[in-house]
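Q: What would this chain look like folded?
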Amino acid sequence: MLKSCFALLSVAVWIGTGVPVSAEGESRLDKIRMSGRINIGFPDASPPFAFLDGSAKPVGYSLEICEHVAAELKPALGLAKLDVGYVPVMSATRIPLINNGTIDLECGTASNLPERHKLVAFAPTTFVAQIVLVARKETPVDVNDLASFRGKAISAQAGGETQRVVTRLNVRDKLDIRIMPAKDTAETFLLLDSGRAAGSVNDDALAHATVAGAKRPGDFKIGVKGLEFAPYGILEPKDDPDFKAQVDKAVVKLIEDGTVAKLYTKYFESPIPPKGINLELPMSEILKRALVKPTDSGDEADYR
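A: My prediction, written as structure tokens:
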């Protein structure tokens, strides 16, 4: 079924300069140089960041950035050929698989939270997710103002960051909003679409994806003012400064030469497989600032 997820992708770039080896022990660079292979972890159902197209081929914004990183690493490692292996991961498995060496990078929707820096490292931020509200157009609420939902019901994915944020704001501002837990993004939207909830809350990219995939996308309105935001970054192994330096250098190059901006247009503002859905999600001002001054920080203040 997911046989192609473990397929190899060859990238062709000629041999270039070498890279330093960590003085503290073997770097992930040494393993990749010896094996001629880099393993990329990816969530296979998180469009537009990482997912499977109509041919079950791994594609997506974050995934393609990682493929470009691999292309940059190949000449730096002095390799004539570097194979890329694809390993499906979940939120619960991505950090353990990075730490045990099964994957070298994780390319999906990992939020760069300060507490995660105890376990892994992050490459410079390439997306900033904003938690937004969604409602039907005829509902008399302002999707940019949570207070307008006072006394109403809002659906949120159970146990997720979105539920935590809306619950905290509801209690803080005494809004008497009823939070309706849902098992996943699809059910979160279903509660809204069926009229059982006056609104739903989700990361902006996922909100736009679900609305774009609805039977009547024009029936809904999506907030542009986030309740909170979180930077996304490629996961890297912790305490491997040589590997991090090479990956970060590649990511910054992709930002500065416009590759990341082009990939953003490809996956957020154009039709994407397998159904040709267009998220029509312009780049946020927060992300624009993060790309002007690349950072791997998990501190929200660094994105203001």
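The CA atoms of residues 153 and 278 lie 28 Å apart.
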